[in-house]
Amino acid sequence: MKEFNVAFLGKWCSRMLVDKEGLWYRVLKARYEEEGGRLKEGRRDSSVWWRMLSAIRSGVGSGEGGWFEENVRRLVG
């Protein structure tokens, strides 16, 4: 179940990179603010979902290294 949850949160992370004009990104941007072209990390007053998503983006709790950065690549062209 843990792997499924990590994969699902990883999908949300990739959506936030690609679909910055989408409704969910705009809702998250209004709630958590954007800094340097990226949504701010989860804080104590953030929802549990957002803190878990932020942890996946940072690679915390996903084994060795940063899971998201190691498994998702952006191709130009």
Report on this structure.
This protein is mainly α and 77 residues long. The protein has one domain. Helices cover 56% and strands 5% of the residues. The protein is built from four helices and two strands; from the N terminus they run H-H-E-E-H-H. A two-stranded antiparallel sheet has the order 1-2. Helix 1 crosses helix 3. It is globular, with a radius of gyration of 12 Å. 9% of the residues are buried.
Beta content comes to: 5-15%
Count of distinct strands? 2
Most strands sheet: 2 strands, antiparallel
Task: Walk across the major sheet and give the strand order.
Answer: 1-2
Q: Given the helix and strand composition, which structural class is it?
A: mainly alpha
Question: What would the principal axes of the Cα set say about the shape?
Answer: globular
- Give the helix level as a range of percent: 55-70%
Order of helices and strands: HHEEHH
Query: Rounded to an integer, what's the Rg over CA atoms?
Result: 12 Å
Distance between the ends: 36 Å
Number of helix segments?
Answer: 4
Low-confidence stretches at least 5 residues in length (pLDDT < 50)? none
Q: What count of domains describes the coordinates?
A: 1
- Give the overall pLDDT as a whole number: 77
